[in-house]
């Protein structure tokens, strides 16, 4: 009832302020089924060439080399400047790009042969050949490599050029996930072969000042704090991009971006959920949304005695009304998550233990685990209070709020939570190895196309990997090790499903939700395809209706 | 120096002096109060401050809701009978949060002021009274601290130390005593040459007793004014730091961090009450402190004569 009052009041505000009545309002959670435009499509003519498309972003890239970056701002640029053998399409299937066709895989699954398109040119005019592919992937398996992605290629033993346009990868053991790993942008051997592999990451002349790839756009300039400019690659092998230029414009925060979008100074931005209500009102902007390939979670540090007992972790999840979180702070733009796999993945397993909002059950589980109310209402056991901090990074409004909201939910069942914020760099330093100095942490994982849980859940990833929760389970370890040996997808999905069910039951994380991603796009922009993971997807097909 | 000029002026107006001083006998305090009350803005400021400080002190009894209680289903609700000033982005009552936030903001302001004034008065008194090397050393220290741009030094220090209430207050106090020190030193330089100081010395009073028992009471006027103005300054500084996310950490509310949370184009557009009220509270409080400070300056200055 209150909600309808609120909705109608805000509607009145909007009507009085802007005199527009396009549907939705602030309370429109159900508009987000799949990729859907919230505003009407204008009649569209044939694609036009020309124009400078301006994308607003608040993060600046770190390194413009596809083998070394770990941040999405850098990935956005390298996805435009470089092209890989294969790419992941919007349905998360592998499509050939530089490669001509799907790979030929030998019967034992150890030899993967890719045939390349002929006549693909680097931005400096040299032709891309099998030698360039061999050079690129040799960087990953070179003993001096500093690539953070080298772990993806542990099973790779050898890459060789069979002829000018054929490359053969040889694996030590069958690897079902290998198909998704050959998406890295191909580097030009003729420019980089003289650089020792150990120094390649620090080779600024290429990585920062003049990256040369085979992608649809060429690098022009990068002015730190202002913009990064790309121009169309006339010789792009999939056809010249319609756009003449793509410019990334850097702004301080999402508020600044929203205002730039309002005034028409930018054509494109990733819209934060909290500003959707405002962007919806802009007549000149379309909002596109799709379920993102990621999940948000509250991670627990299982090395701390408080979280040792899985009943405590299950009770915490029972005590948090995730449906309410989704409907309120996410404004309906998310789906409650139960397991570490996205519904978009072929390995998604819906049949996992679920811990719905149930305060009584939470209290019962805590009592079973031996926690009893102390004098101040906070649970105690052996003289220790059930009290801990939840850490988040200070730049992220939603995560900060989740910490504060969790405090109230958990107080209901007698758990004391102290939400804390830290600056991003210090935050990562504190939660990552070797420090692991946290109780609980609000985070999200952007998932890889391949659903292998190894990097996050295998116990050998605790010491120096991404398994920050220090999760240990022999069966999950076994599945993480063995699932890639199974080439049949259905069989592999069944295996992975078991692992996801075990993790969901043990609740090393409280899985929060799968969020939707919103892209605000000027109505001038046509030909956009919304990819659940890659922001700069098929940009050569975008065009400006001027 | 100030006093002697005042005397000169009084001597030039013998008539006024005769009529008033002979006509009625008044205490210094009553004159100060009368002068203060003549300043309408100062009285307005004092009343506002009384209301603000009073309601902050009585917050637990006045506040209609638990300031930290969230109702996610009632986010950004407009002002109504139940929620006088509306609710924030987590459905918390803004009126209650303003009351409790005021406690933190005023607490920071007052405690930092007491700290800064204590340090500043002591340093200024010692420098002014002893002069020479002591003076030179202490005043160079003041120069060094003053030469840093204040707000940047604050941000750096608070960013290095982890933000918390006590650290915030300490940083404020340790960086803001310099003005008071200069003021007090100036007063001491003139006062220490007066006859009453000579008299005190003659009867063998110790230096400390002379400084704090004899001279300081006479130098308190300008200090009180500076202290009043400083409270407003500290409240503003706390708001600024909290606004930048370096001040008091959630879920504790202060006026400054309430403003931070309302930093969103959508909130500005749909929920004007959220950024407006904390902003208005900061404005009113700081303005009131400045009015009161101005009023006190006039009331305590013997050169300003009752109208």
Automatic annotation (TrEMBL), chain B:
Pfam (any one): BPD_transp_1
GO cellular component, one term: plasma membrane
GO biological process, one term: transmembrane transport
Membrane topology: Multi-pass membrane protein
Lineage: superkingdom: Bacteria
Residue ranges crossing the lipid bilayer per the database entry: 41-63, 106-129, 141-161, 167-184, 215-237, 272-293
PANTHER family (UniProt xref): D,D-DIPEPTIDE TRANSPORT SYSTEM PERMEASE PROTEIN DDPC-RELATED, OLIGOPEPTIDE TRANSPORT SYSTEM PERMEASE PROTEIN APPC
Family: Belongs to the binding-protein-dependent transport system permease family.
Name this polypeptide is given: Peptide ABC transporter permease
Source organism per UniProt: Anaerobacillus arseniciselenatis
């Amino acid at each position: 009832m209150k909600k309808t009052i609120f909705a109608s009041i805000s509607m009145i505000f909007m009507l009085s302020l802007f005199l527009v009545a396009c549907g939705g309002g602030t309370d429109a959670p159900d508009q987000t089924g799949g990729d859907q435009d919230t505003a009407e499509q204008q009649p569209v003519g044939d694609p036009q060439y020309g124009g400078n498309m301006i994308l607003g972003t608040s993060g600046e890239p770190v390194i413009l080399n596809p083998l070394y970056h770990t941040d999405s701002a850098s990935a956005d640029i390298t996805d435009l400047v470089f092209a890989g053998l294969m790419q992941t399409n919007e349905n998360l299937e592998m499509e050939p790009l530089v490669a001509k066709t799907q790979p030929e895989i030998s019967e034992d699954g150890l030899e993967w042969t890719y045939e390349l398109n002929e006549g693909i040119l680097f931005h400096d005019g040299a032709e891309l050949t099998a030698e360039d592919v061999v050079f690129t992937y040799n960087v990953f398996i070179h003993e001096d490599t500093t690539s953070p992605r080298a772990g993806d290629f542990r099973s790779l033993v050898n890459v060789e050029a069979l002829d000018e346009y054929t490359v053969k990868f040889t694996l030590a053991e069958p690897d079902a996930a290998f198909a998704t790993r050959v998406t890295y942008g191909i580097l030009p051997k003729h420019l980089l072969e003289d650089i020792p592999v150990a120094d390649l990451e620090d080779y600024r002349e290429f990585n920062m000042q003049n990256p040369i790839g085979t992608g649809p756009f060429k690098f022009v300039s990068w002015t730190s704090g202002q913009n990064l400019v790309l121009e169309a690659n006339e010789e792009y092998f999939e056809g010249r991009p319609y756009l003449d230029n793509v410019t990334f414009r850097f702004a301080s925060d999402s508020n600044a971006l929203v205002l730039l979008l309002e005034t028409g100074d930018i054509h494109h931005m990733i819209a934060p959920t909290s500003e959707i209500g405002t962007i919806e009102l802009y007549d000149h902007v379309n909002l596109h949304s799709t379920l993102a390939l990621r999940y948000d979670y509250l991670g627990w540090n299982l090395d701390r005695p408080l979280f040792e007992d899985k009943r405590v972790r299950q009770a915490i999840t029972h005590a948090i009304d995730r449906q309410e979180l989704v409907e309120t702070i996410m404004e309906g733009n998310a789906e409650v998550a139960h397991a570490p796999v996205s519904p978009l993945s072929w390995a998604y397993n819906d049949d996992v233990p679920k811990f719905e909002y149930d305060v009584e059950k939470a209290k019962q589980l805590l009592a079973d685990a031996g926690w009893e109310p102390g004098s101040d209402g906070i649970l105690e056991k052996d003289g220790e209070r059930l009290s801990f901090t939840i850490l988040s990074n200070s730049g992220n409004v939603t995560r900060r709020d989740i910490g504060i909201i969790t405090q109230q939910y958990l107080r209901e069942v007698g758990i004391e939570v102290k939400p804390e914020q830290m600056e991003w760099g210090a935050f990562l330093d504190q939660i990552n190895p070797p420090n692991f100095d946290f109780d609980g942490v609000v985070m999200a994982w952007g998932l890889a196309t391949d659903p292998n849980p190894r990097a996050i859940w295998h116990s050998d990833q605790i010491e120096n990997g991404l398994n920050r929760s220090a999760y240990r389970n022999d069966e999950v370890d076994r599945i993480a090790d063995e699932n890639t040996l199974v080439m049949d997808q259905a069989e592999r999905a069944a295996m992975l499903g078991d692992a996801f069910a075990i993790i969901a039951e043990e609740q090393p994380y409280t899985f929060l939700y799968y969020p939707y991603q919103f892209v605000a796009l000027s109505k001038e922009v046509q030909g956009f395809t919304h990819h659940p993971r890659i922001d700069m997807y098929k940009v050569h097909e975008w065009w400006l209706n001027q | 120096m100030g006093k002697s000029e005042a005397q000169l002026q009084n001597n030039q107006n013998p008539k006024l002096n005769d009529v008033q001083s002979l006509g009625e006998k008044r205490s210094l305090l009553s004159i100060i109060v009368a002068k203060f009350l003549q300043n309408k803005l100062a009285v307005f400021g004092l009343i506002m401050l009384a209301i603000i400080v009073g309601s902050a002190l009585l917050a637990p009894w006045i506040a209609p809701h638990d300031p930290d209680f969230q109702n996610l289903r009632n986010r950004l609700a407009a002002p109504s009978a139940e929620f006088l000033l509306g609710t924030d982005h987590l459905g918390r009552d803004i009126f209650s949060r303003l009351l409790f936030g005021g406690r933190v903001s005023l607490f920071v302001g007052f405690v930092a002021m007491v700290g800064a004034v204590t340090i500043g008065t002591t340093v200024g008194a010692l420098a002014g009274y002893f002069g020479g090397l002591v003076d030179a050393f202490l005043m160079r220290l003041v120069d060094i601290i003053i030469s840093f741009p204040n707000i940047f030094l604050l941000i750096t220090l608070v960013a290095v130390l982890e933000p918390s209430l006590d650290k915030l207050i300490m940083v404020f106090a340790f960086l803001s005593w310099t003005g008071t020190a200069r003021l007090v030193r100036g007063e001491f330089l003139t006062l220490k040459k007066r006859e009453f100081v000579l008299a005190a010395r003659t009867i063998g009073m110790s230096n400390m007793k002379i400084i704090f028992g004899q001279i300081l009471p006479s130098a308190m006027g300008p200090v009180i004014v500076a202290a009043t103005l400083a409270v407003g300054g500290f409240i503003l500084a706390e708001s600024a730091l909290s606004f930048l996310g370096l001040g008091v950490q959630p879920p504790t509310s202060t006026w400054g961090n309430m403003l931070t949370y309302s930093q969103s184009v959508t909130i500005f557009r749909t929920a004007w009450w959220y950024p407006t009220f904390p902003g208005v509270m900061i404005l009113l409080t700081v303005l009131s402190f400045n009015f009161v400070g101005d009023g006190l300056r006039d009331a305590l200055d013997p050169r300003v004569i009752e109208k």
